[in-house]
TrEMBL record:
Cited Pfam families: MreC (PF04085)
Record's protein name: Cell shape-determining protein MreC
Organism expressing this protein natively: Fluviicola taffensis (strain DSM 16823 / NCIMB 13979 / RW262)
Domain of life: Bacteria
Recorded GO CC terms: plasma membrane
Entry-linked InterPro entries: Cell/Rod_1, Cell/Rod_MreC_2, MreC, MreC_beta-barrel_core
Family statement drawn from the similarity comment of this UniProt entry: Belongs to the MreC family.
Lineage, broadest ranks: Bacteria, Pseudomonadati, Bacteroidota, Flavobacteriia, Flavobacteriales
Bilayer-spanning residue ranges: none
Length: 282
């Protein structure tokens, strides 16, 4: 109590000054329309900034949940695309486009670890057997092809990306339809190669490369990249094509795992194809 009294005695002049200033300002604001308007405008601006900051903080902490909802919504919409469905009745041209059965399903996942600078590169995603994932399923992102599921645990899976040796994704030129295999020479994480296309087929620079869909792992038409360089292979009637891939594996965060519900049927049927006699003789 003594300290409080001593404080008031020590600063009594300053406290009286502050009190009189408050009284004067209050009277000024109360009887002056201009001053009152300025005070209210300033208060509104300060409150607006406070609410903006609070909203930004709230959105930040809710961002993960919001992103997950958007991923599942994107997966649901992807499953409705025509390339994700199988047309049942193909006999008549006038058959309506609604005559489709679901062929591809999509499951959203988050990348929790990945590499891009090794000879064979892998990424770990946060879904596994508990979510129905199986080895051999395709993986894409919102930008394009990513890889193929290589190992599956209960809650996680490991994906072998296209930045690997002999992953051999079947691709085609969007214009013209020429097809080959996507490979990677381990030099540049943004550049892959397409092999197996005859050099008597016209391939233009900047031609878009997409999945062919022949293996059943990926739907037809998923973006892969664009042709940035082409030259004939010396001594062979083939193109050496360089593709700038659509996905940047240095920053990838979210992917979709693809299930082809008809894949087992496709592989069983193709497994019944008899071997070539010439191959048997070798």
């Amino acid at each position: 109590m003594r300290n409080l009294i001593a404080f008031f005695k020590r600063f009594q002049i300053f406290l009286v000054f502050v009190f009189l200033q408050v009284v004067a300002l209050s009277a000024y604001v109360q009887y002056s329309d201009f001053a009152r308007l300025q005070v209210f405008s300033s208060a509104s601006m300060i409150n607006g900034r406070i609410y903006t900051v609070r909203n930004s903080v709230t959105k930040h902490f809710n961002l993960e949940g919001t992103n997950r909802k958007l991923e599942w919504e994107n997966a649901r919409l992807r499953a409705k695309l025509k390339d994700s469905n199988y047309k049942i009745d193909r006999e008549l041209v006038q058959i309506e486009d609604t005559s489709y059965h679901q062929q591809y399903l999509y499951l959203a996942a988050t990348v929790i670890n990945n590499t891009y600078d090794k000879r064979n590169n892998y990424m770990t995603i946060d879904i596994g057997k508990n979510h129905g994932i199986k080895k051999g399923w395709g993986v894409i992102s919102s930008k394009g092809v990513v890889g193929i599921v290589h190992l599956v645990g209960e809650s996680y899976a490991v994906v072998k990306t296209i930045l690997s040796k002999n992953i051999n994704v079947d691709v085609s030129m969007r214009d013209g339809g020429a097809f080959g295999l996507l490979k990677w020479d381990a030099i540049n994480s943004k550049i892959c190669q397409v092999s197996g296309i005859s050099n008597d087929i016209t391939i233009k620079k900047f031609t878009k490369v997409v999945t062919r869909g022949g293996s059943g792992i990926f739907p037809r038409g998923i973006p892969v990249g664009v042709i940035t360089k082409r030259k004939s292979i010396e001594g062979k009637p083939l193109w050496d094509l360089q593709v700038r891939i659509a996905e940047d594996f240095r920053t990838i965060q979210h992917v979709y795992v693809i299930q082809n519900v008809m894949l087992d049927e496709l592989r069983e049927l193709e497994g019944k194809i008899p071997p070539d006699k010439e191959e048997e003789d070798l």
